[in-house]
Design a protein that fits this description.
Layout: H1 2-12, H2 33-40, E1 52-53, H3 60-63, E2 77-79, H4 84-96, E3 101-104, E4 119-122, E5 129-132, E6 137-141, H5 146-154, E7 158-159, H6 170-175, H7 183-186, E8 193-199, E9 205-208, H8 214-223, E10 230-237, E11 239-240, E12 244-251, H9 255-271, E13 276-285, E14 288-298, H10 306-310, E15 316-322, H11 324-331, E16 339-347, H12 353-368, E17 374-381, E18 400-408, H13 414-428, H14 448-453, H15 457-467
Parallel strand pairs: 2-4, 3-4
Antiparallel strand pairs: 1-2, 5-6, 6-10, 7-11, 8-9, 8-10, 12-14, 12-15, 13-14, 13-17, 16-18, 17-18
Helix pairs in contact: 8-15, 9-12, 12-13
The site of flavin-adenine dinucleotide has 33 residues, from strand 3, helix 6 and strand 10.
Length: about 475
């Protein structure tokens, strides 16, 4: 009651003139006690920020969640600055009060790396996209999602090599590397970055590129997530892609066929020309199992390269030609469920029969149990034209990478899901490299520095000491100032 009264008085004390945030201030009619307590524990000069979503605000319960709904976290406030001045002002206040904060752009971190029970700095309003066809470059604000980028520059017949799940944020994807269907053709997302606009720990905005702060530029491309500053936007090189063809080969599931598809695909990717990329996918949903190979070819010529490798396995074949923009929906994997856990491995050589068997067992067991999970495992070819670029992305010379994700729609299924994935991981560990992809954040990995960044770790920590000596930008798997 006390809280309700206080809150009501607070509400009456506000009007459209003296409160800059009339849209979102207040107001659930009976906000719960915790929301009021949280709100009142915020320092006074941060209690009336016009671009804040407070626990007592309408919209808070949506805004506090990331894409992965597993993490039920209650931040003190979510700040969504709308311009650089507001961002700088906010950052200075957070610093002055020594407040713990996280950075969020697209909210697709797989673990709660962009969430905290402290304060969330959410970059959603930095969502400009400014293409410059003459110079074949595009400015992309930190808050943009992939869908908007693919659409905006796709209409001009240009592309950036990104992932294709449209709601993923450009920022997290790029700062961790960025692997996707155009990767073998144009490199990683971070390889197309020309410059990065960044708010640094000393409160200054700088432009970082090959000539200005080159060490920081190196670190931000592959190990930049939440460690070195707040990214405001990127300038990317755009690639002209007027024509592509997509390929989809699918089979009815049986153990022998899945083995043959793996063998054929693993041989095939060793001979693939640089303008073709491909993924091998295993899926389980609604008691159905699926194995398929998908591919993307840049250029006008027919997509015939699959025949030599797969014709004898008699797949169902679908080939389509068109623009990259037309092809994008083909790549997006949509889950019907809100909770998930993912793992990844970088593979330096082909998988042997043992781990393939383990994967087949994993899927067949889900079916035998009439399981309610959705499982999606994807092997993606690397190599091709992925350059030996000088960036912090470590496993450049991998042959492929493996991404495993398990989704569920009921919190009671979580423990079993985690157990299933962890057991799978243990079983395949002897057959795969110890390295994983930094963007598939996995809190089960304790020695994450070595696993994600290999022999780049010392250099990354050195750069961290230079630009953020007091470790203002940190989360559970960020780059520390020294080995802990
Ligand atoms: C459904 C799905 C599909 C995916 N597909 C792909 C794929 O095809 N290819 C691929 O490479 N990856 C893929 N990923 C992984 C994805 O790249 C990472 O999850 C990425 O970090 C998401 O970025 P975000 O901006 O959406 O995330 P956020 O949750 O906003 O942030 C992720 C990380 O970036 C940091 N960060 C956020 N904003 C800033 C900022 N402004 N400045 C500095 N640091 C910041 C945060 O601290 C956090 O550590 C996928 C993930 C999901 C959930």
């Amino acid at each position: 009651m006390k809280y309700l009264l206080a809150l009501t008085l607070f509400a009456f004390s506000l009007n459209a003139e003296n409160v800059a945030c009339p849209d979102n201030i207040l107001l659930e009619v009976y906000p719960d006690q915790n929301a009021c307590e949280l709100f009142h524990s915020i320092p006074h000069d941060l209690q009336q920020i016009p671009y804040a979503i407070y626990p007592i605000c309408k919209g808070y319960d949506t805004a506090r969640f990331n894409f992965n709904k597993r993490f039920n976290i209650f931040p003190h406030a979510i700040f969504t600055p709308r311009c650089e001045d507001e961002l700088v002002h906010l950052f200075k206040k957070l610093k002055k009060h020594h407040l713990k904060f996280s950075l969020r752009s697209g909210g697709h971190c797989i673990e709660p790396g962009s969430l905290t029970s402290g304060y969330v700095v959410d970059m959603r309003h930095f969502d400009d996209i400014i293409p410059d066809v003459e110079h074949e470059e595009v400015y992309v604000g930190a808050g943009c999602r992939l869908g908007k980028v693919i659409n905006t520059i796709g209409k001009l017949d240009y592309a950036i090599p990104t992932g294709t799940c449209t709601s993923v944020g450009v920022t997290g994807l790029t700062l961790g590397g960025g692997l996707g269907v155009l990767g073998r053709i144009f490199g990683l997302t971070c390889d197309s970055v020309k410059s990065i606009r960044l708010l640094t720990a000393d409160g200054k905005i700088i432009d970082v590129d090959h000539h200005n702060h080159p060490d920081l530029f190196w670190a931000l491309r592959g190990a930049g997530n939440g460690s070195y500053g707040i990214v405001i936007g990127f300038t990317f090189k755009m690639h002209y892609v007027p024509h592509v063809s997509t390929l989809r080969l699918s089979w009815k599931w049986d153990r022998k066929t899945v083995h043959e598809v793996f063998d054929a695909w693993q041989c095939w990717i060793k001979t693939l020309p640089g303008n073709i990329s491909s993924q091998l996918q295993l899926k389980y949903l609604n008691n159905k199992l699926l194995v398929r190979v998908v591919g993307l070819k840049v250029g006008k010529s027919c997509f015939n390269e699959w025949k030599k490798a797969f014709k004898h396995l008699r797949p169902k074949v679908k080939i389509e030609t068109g623009s990259y923009l037309d092809s994008a929906p083909e790549w997006a994997d949509r889950s019907p469920f809100p909770f998930f856990k993912s793992k990844s491995q970088m593979l330096n050589k082909s998988l042997s029969h043992e781990p393939i068997n383990t994967a087949i067992d994993f899927f067949e067991k889900l079916k035998a149990e009439h399981s309610k999970y959705y499982a999606f495992f994807e092997l993606e070819a690397m190599g091709g034209k992925i350059p030996d670029a000088h960036t912090a992305f470590f496993p450049r010379r991998a042959e492929s990478w493996w991404y495993e994700v398990l989704y569920w729609d009921n919190e009671n299924l979580e423990q079993t899901a985690l157990h299933k994935l962890r057991t799978f991981q243990c079983d395949i560990a002897p057959y795969v490299s110890k390295h994983a992809y930094a963007n598939i954040v996995d809190y089960d990995i304790h020695n994450y520095l070595d696993v994600y960044y290999g022999n780049h770790v010392n250099r990354l920590m050195h750069i961290k000491r230079t630009y953020d000596p007091h470790n203002l930008f940190h989360w559970r798997q960020s780059i520390p100032t020294c080995e802990e």
